[in-house]
Amino acid sequence: MTGSITPKALPSSFDLLPRPKARPAGVESQLLELEFGLFRPIKGGGVFKNLPLSGGAILFGPPGTGKTSIVSFVAAAARVPVVVLRANSVHSKFYGESEKILANIFKEARDKSPSAILIDELECIFPSRVASTATEAHKAMLSQLLTELDDAKNARVVVIGTTNYLSQIDDALLRRLPQHIEVPLPTVGARLSILKHHLTLGGRKHQISDDQLQLLAHQLQGCSGSGIANAVACSLQHLARRVYENAERVKDAERVKDRKRVKDQKKDKLQMDQIPTKPARTPRRPLLKLPELRYRDFILPVHSQGRIFSHRKRGRGKRNSLHASVLPSA
């Protein structure tokens, strides 16, 4: 990633935010809000020069809705270096060491400004001081973060937190990160956009009509963006497995026929007092090509049961066929 920060004297687990290969689908309003609310102002070009800086934002919503991908894409497009702050990056068993690590991270960010710091799972690293899980170490870490946030704003460093539970964030932290951007489960229009994106990712083609795509978008209600991506991947995997197993069954049937034919030839030649010759080997079939995905091949997640169903009909009177595999919830 261009302009990535490489912090010094930090734990080896400190991560750099990866750059997405494609624009996240179904979150257009959140992308624009983050771009024009944070990243363009800290770049300070054109009409955004000398604009007041908000200091940071919190992206909140259910798991798998693409909060980290949104930050990653907007930061990469703005060419702003971003570092990711996770629990294993800052927590230390030594007293006072976590605060020093946090201070070093912000110092590096100020040296590389304009820059951004992404705090993943904000409620886990900096729980509210009134929470029952908050220890004295957590409170000391939160106090250090609040101090750093006051200095970071003037140094053109933005801090972005992601959380699944906005209610578990400390009130003081909510005030210092004033932009609260909700990333909810996708609407039917967003699900359609996400579905089209993953069906055609990497130049793939499919045979699902527009009407069938609309139907799938309604049937995927309650799925997150990552859940839809998992459903597409699982459908392609099952399609590949079915094609492979069908090809193996055909090959097995051909082997049985070949053995029977050779046996008959040997019997005839023995009856004619002739020496049997070695039969020619059946030529190896070329590698199979995965066919284009169709509507009946698509597998819908059933979160309440933890199983997945396919539209494929098997036998008369059967609407759906149940597979034993499990689709990860998202």
TrEMBL record:
**GO MF annotations, alphabetized:** ATP binding; ATP hydrolysis activity
Q: Which SUPFAM superfamilies match?
A: P-loop containing nucleoside triphosphate hydrolases
Q: Which UniProt keywords apply?
A: ATP-binding, Nucleotide-binding
How far does the signal peptide extend, from start to end residue?
Answer: none
Ranges for the region named Disordered are 255-283, 311-330
Q: Where is the composition biased (Basic residues)?
A: 311-321
Q: Would I find ATP-binding among this entry's keywords?
A: yes
**The keyword 4Fe-4S appears for this protein:** no
Q: Where is the AAA+ ATPase domain?
A: 53-187
**What InterPro entries does this protein map onto?**
AAA+_ATPase, ATPase_AAA_core, ATPase_AAA_CS, MT-severing_AAA_ATPase, P-loop_NTPase
Q: Which domain of life is it from?
A: Eukaryota
Which Gene3D superfamilies is this protein grouped with?
1.10.8.60, P-loop containing nucleotide triphosphate hydrolases (3.40.50.300)
> What PANTHER family does the annotation carry?
AAA DOMAIN-CONTAINING, VACUOLAR PROTEIN SORTING-ASSOCIATED PROTEIN 4A
The record's similarity note reads: Belongs to the AAA ATPase family.
Protein's name according to its UniProt entry: AAA+ ATPase domain-containing protein
Q: Which organism is it from?
A: Tilletia controversa (dwarf bunt fungus)
